[in-house]
């Protein structure tokens, strides 16, 4: 049963997530752990809505939106997700190249090109979704082990980390909080889950099993890894008040603890998160824009593959143009994704209340949490806009 939510989790846990988590820990200690907890809980609820839509609708999610709410809204949703995948592709391209460059040497941009070619080759498989799913589950498992080991090495102050579960907003942390919410409460990733459910052929009869084996662990995994990164960053960089504004400073997070081995652990985590997110991001963007434009909802369709290629090429192009401050570039790109998230969040809630879902429709408590989630998305979007204008 495991699969679709782990693909979503791999997409969610990209280099933008890693970079923003390191900055959160190095700049504000354990104070922003609560953002990850709240974001992860909301992500589980919205992913569950998408799972039920995938099981209960006879057609794809965007096609259902077209049928129920009108074609323009469905097309707008697909274009919105495509915009988000373009933003994510920047962090994926930067992270994959830098991570492998730190491990193996050579120019980061050359490794970015190599990773892009490998991802494109994976997307050319006939049964592309199943291949993507298996690759991503393996990478997520390996990253989880790496980050748990890193947390053990760091020996953080766990009592202080527990205090970080209490909501607080340190001065100057607003944009970083927006980036954390945008990467951990990833509505676009939740939106795509319904497509994975369709690809796997899950039905109403599988709902309970899928929830326990896939939805909950698949979304918890990136949330736990992100929290561990904040904890380690707070334990290491937080001791000196140092901020991580460059990739080398990000790698230095483990240097005081484990020397070159620590830096290698970070480089593996960075390249793994970037590569897995690159695969899922290109797949999702290609599938949903293809569906919106009438090219079909299959990852193996011609339109989907063309769009996926465009997303990959965009990541390389922006990486070539902006090479001055890659961490700032990654976090800014991630934060911009919340501008589209309110539309996708509202659509998930509206569609999850449609009559065609029958017993899979939202209950009152689903809608209560959904309203909280939509308000949170809108608040982060408004805060981002006011910050940019200010």
From TrEMBL:
UniProt main location, coarse: membrane
Coiled-coil residue windows: none
Superkingdom of this protein's organism: Bacteria
One Gene Ontology term, aspect cellular component: plasma membrane
Membrane protein topology class: Multi-pass membrane protein
Acetylation is among the record's keywords: no
Bilayer-spanning residue ranges: 31-51, 72-94, 100-123, 135-155, 175-197, 218-237, 257-282, 303-322, 328-352, 364-385
Keywords: Membrane, Transmembrane, Transmembrane helix, Transport
Pfam families the UniProt entry points to: Nramp
Listed GO MF terms: cadmium ion transmembrane transporter activity; manganese ion transmembrane transporter activity
Any one of the GO BP annotations: iron ion transmembrane transport
Keyword Membrane listed: yes
Subcellular location field: Membrane
UniProt-recorded name of the protein: Manganese transporter
Organism: Enemella evansiae
Lineage: Bacteria, Bacillati, Actinomycetota, Actinomycetes, Propionibacteriales
């Amino acid at each position: 049963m495991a699969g679709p939510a782990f693909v979503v989790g791999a997409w969610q846990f990209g280099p933008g997530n890693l970079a923003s988590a390191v900055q959160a820990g190095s700049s504000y200690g354990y104070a922003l752990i609560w953002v990850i907890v709240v974001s992860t809980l909301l992500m589980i609820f919205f992913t569950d809505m998408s799972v039920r839509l995938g099981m209960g609708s006879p057609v794809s999610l965007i096609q259902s939106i077209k049928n129920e709410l009108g074609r323009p809204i469905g097309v707008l949703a697909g274009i919105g997700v495509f915009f988000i995948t373009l933003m994510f592709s920047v962090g994926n391209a930067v992270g994959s190249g830098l991570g492998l460059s730190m491990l193996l040497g050579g120019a980061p941009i050359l490794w970015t090109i190599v990773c892009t070619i490998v991802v494109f080759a994976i997307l050319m498989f006939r049964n592309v979704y199943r291949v993507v799913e298996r690759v991503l589950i393996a990478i997520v498992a390996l990253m989880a082990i790496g980050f748990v080991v890193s947390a053990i090495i760091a020996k953080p102050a766990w009592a202080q980390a527990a205090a970080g579960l209490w909501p607080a907003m340190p001065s100057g942390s607003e944009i970083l909080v927006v980036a954390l919410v945008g990467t951990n409460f990833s509505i676009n990733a939740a939106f795509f889950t319904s497509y994975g459910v369709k690809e796997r052929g899950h039905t109403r009869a599988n709902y309970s099993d899928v929830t326990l084996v896939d939805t909950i662990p698949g979304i918890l995994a990136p949330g736990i890894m992100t929290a561990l990164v904040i904890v380690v960053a707070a334990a290491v960089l937080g001791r000196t008040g140092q901020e991580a504004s460059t990739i080398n400073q990000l790698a230095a997070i483990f240097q005081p603890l484990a020397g070159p081995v620590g830096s290698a652990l970070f480089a593996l985590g960075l390249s793994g998160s970037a590569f897995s997110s690159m695969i899922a991001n290109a797949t999702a963007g290609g599938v949903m824009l293809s569906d919106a434009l009438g090219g079909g909802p299959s990852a193996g369709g011609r339109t989907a593959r063309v769009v996926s290629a465009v997303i990959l090429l965009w990541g390389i192009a922006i990486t070539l143009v902006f090479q001055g401050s890659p961490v700032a570039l990654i976090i800014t790109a991630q934060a911009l994704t919340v501008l589209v998230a309110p539309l996708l969040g509202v659509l998930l809630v509206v569609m999850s209340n449609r009559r065609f879902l029958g017993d899979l429709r939202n209950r009152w408590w689903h809608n209560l949490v959904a309203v909280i989630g939509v308000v949170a998305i809108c608040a982060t979007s408004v805060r981002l806009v006011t910050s940019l204008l200010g």
